[in-house]
């Protein structure tokens, strides 16, 4: 007669020996792993930068003291001609960059070419 051989799966456990209850499980004594930082709460957004503008009545730049109302000449890079403007105000942004608000002075037909005559210019 043939004998039947029954094989048991290695995955099946004997129900006679149950695992230890949850209260008796070993607690890990190791510190937190290096990947713990990735499991923290969601990152917090940085606050948006607030642009602040500071106005001034005067400014000192490259050894020259400028005030509101001064007339300045600006040389054009392309044609090399001088253009004149009157300073309306000064502003400084959050990066400490200084700027001037200008009112351009437009020459008339009677304006001399070699010098500035304020009576011959109109406000632009």
Automatic annotation (TrEMBL):
GO terms for cellular component: nucleus. It is found in: Nucleus. Gene3D superfamilies: 2.30.30.490. GO terms for molecular function: zinc ion binding. Keywords: Metal-binding, Nucleus, Zinc, Zinc-finger. GO terms for biological process: chromatin organization. Residues 1-32 are annotated as: Disordered. Its main location: nucleus. This is GATA zinc finger domain-containing protein 1. InterPro entries: BAH_sf, GATAD1.
């Amino acid at each position: 007669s043939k004998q039947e051989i029954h094989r048991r799966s290695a995955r099946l456990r004997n129900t006679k020996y149950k695992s230890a209850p949850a209260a008796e499980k070993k607690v890990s004594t190791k510190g937190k792993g290096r990947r713990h930082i990735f499991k923290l709460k969601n990152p917090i957004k940085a606050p948006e930068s607030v642009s602040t503008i500071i106005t001034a009545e005067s400014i000192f730049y490259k050894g020259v003291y400028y005030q509101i109302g001064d007339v300045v000449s600006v040389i054009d890079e392309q044609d090399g001609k001088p253009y004149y403007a009157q300073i309306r105000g000064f502003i400084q942004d959050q990066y400490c960059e200084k700027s001037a608000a200008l009112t351009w002075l437009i020459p008339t037909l009677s304006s001399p070419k070699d010098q500035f005559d304020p009576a011959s210019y109109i406000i632009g």
